[in-house]
Amino acid sequence: QKEVEQNSGPLSVPEGAIASLNCTYSDRVSQSFFWYRQYSGKSPELIMSIYSNGDKEDGRFTAQLNKASQYVSLLIRDSQPSDSATYLCAVMRNSNYQLIWGAGTKLIIKP
Amino acid sequence: EAGVTQFPSHSVIEKGQTVTLRCDPISGHDNLYWYRRVMGKEIKFLLHFVKESKQDESGMPNNRFLAERTGGTYSTLKVQPAELEDSGVYFCASSPEVGSPLHFGNGTRLTVT
Fold it and tell me: For A43, which of B33, B101, B105 is closest by C-beta distance?
């Protein structure tokens, strides 16, 4: 079992709809969770960080964390074609602060 | 504020040759990380500097890889001799504090032929 799991996609969502990206992790004691967006050939760009159970909203983005279920998600409201990218979930190990990455979900927003 | 910069953006070398990658972190960021993504795989941790000291190098694949951060500013990652399986994208990232979100450079795409 991988430490961080994501559905590779592609996930196709119509423009204006809500895109829902999911991630599960295996290390129960992890405390820090990050969503990065990566355009082809570019570096990962931090979208959201979340540390506590519940929802965290920033503009069109909402991160949701459920530590009991070891599940973190990212919702993108009013999806735009420019949101089309690969979204990477990363979990920070408490023991050594290493980021453990999922393989990423490719998101396609259809105009 | 200038971001994390990496040089070169691409490098194509033959098996057995040496390549040195460079990373300039965001000014003032004591923490510097190297990560690597090989084709079809997840991004993997290589090592972590705090200032000039290696805090964690548990992800370095073998002794063909040597990372330095003299003076606690920029860092270099040397691969000598390069092997085919070293091909991938090498990312550098920095952060002001341990545990805070990482800021990534654009990466160096290394191809070993």
Answer: B105
* Contact: A99, B103; criterion CB under 8 Å: no
Q: Do A88 and B43 touch (CB under 8 A)?
A: yes
Candidates B38, B44, B28, B9; CA nearest to B94 is B28
Low-confidence ranges of chain B (pLDDT < 70): 1
Q: By percentage, how much of chain A surpasses pLDDT 70?
A: 100
Chain A residues near residue B101 by CB distance under 8 angstroms? 34, 46, 49
Distance to chain A for B101, nearest Cα, Å: 7
- Report residues of chain A scoring pLDDT below 70: none
pLDDT at residue number B111: 97
Give residue B1's pLDDT: 63
- Is B56 in contact with A88 (Cβ distance < 8 A)? no
Encode pLDDT of A65-82 as tens digits: 999 999 999 999 999 999
**Is B107 close to A43, i.e. CB distance below 8 A?**
yes
* DSSP SS3 for B70: helix
Q: Sort B102 into a burial class: Cβ within 10 Å, 0-12 / 13-18 / 19+.
A: buried
Among A4, A24, A21, A6, CA closest to A108 = A21
Q: Are A77 and A60 in contact (CB under 8 A)?
A: yes
